[in-house]
Amino acid sequence: MSACRVRSRAVTLSTSWQERYIARFYDRERGWIDGTTEFYDLCSAMIPPASRILEVGGGPSNKTSRFLAGLGEVHGVDLDPAVLTNDALASAEVLIEDDFPYAAESFDACVSSFVIEHVAVPVLHLRQVQRVLKPGAPYIIRTPNVNHFVYRISSLTPHAFHRTVANRLRNLPPDAHDPYPTVYGMNSARKIFALAGATGFSVDVLRIIEKNPAYGMSSRTLFLLFMAYERTVNSTEHLARFRATILSVLRREP
To answer: Which domains are delineated in the chain?
Structure first.
């Protein structure tokens, strides 16, 4: 056996089954675009160069904050004091009250990635985002779709259940942060349109996507079941409402 073949076999054996399945069924070289890339592409398309950006729910240091820092000057606000450790932010504030600690019309764009599902009163949240955005500026959102079966189950079960199973299903390490409590007050197309209209926003983009099975990473069987679901809901736009993730751009009305 050649050295090249031995080396190739060693690499194959050293990779996890999760990595091998993702490479086999969700190969970017064959045109598959993962959800994070699609969200980043949307941000790039909607945020003007050298913008002043507010990341709502910035959290601790993470890939999304670093990506946004390549588009402009990023400031972050979050209920979690860990936002103060985010190394991609030009400034960070811990949210204590409902009002954002920023002047009116002080940002060219706002971005939230998997934050809206944790907001207890979405109308108050949107009013604050609307206040700090400049006229015509975008609020770009990535959030779960409550009509997807995983999030429907999540909405009907207590937070203790989420703490027990959510990280395990995603095969996250033991020291991963526990999931935050979820509310799902703005997590359907219908609710987004209704709340946007009530708070001075128009809906520029609303796209519901289903990507590789993040909640099927704990076993091969679960992965294949989730993949079968993904293939089904992506087979026709008639099933789009049952996909996992909403990407939306709300535009502050002038």
So the answer is: 33-252 (3.40.50.150)
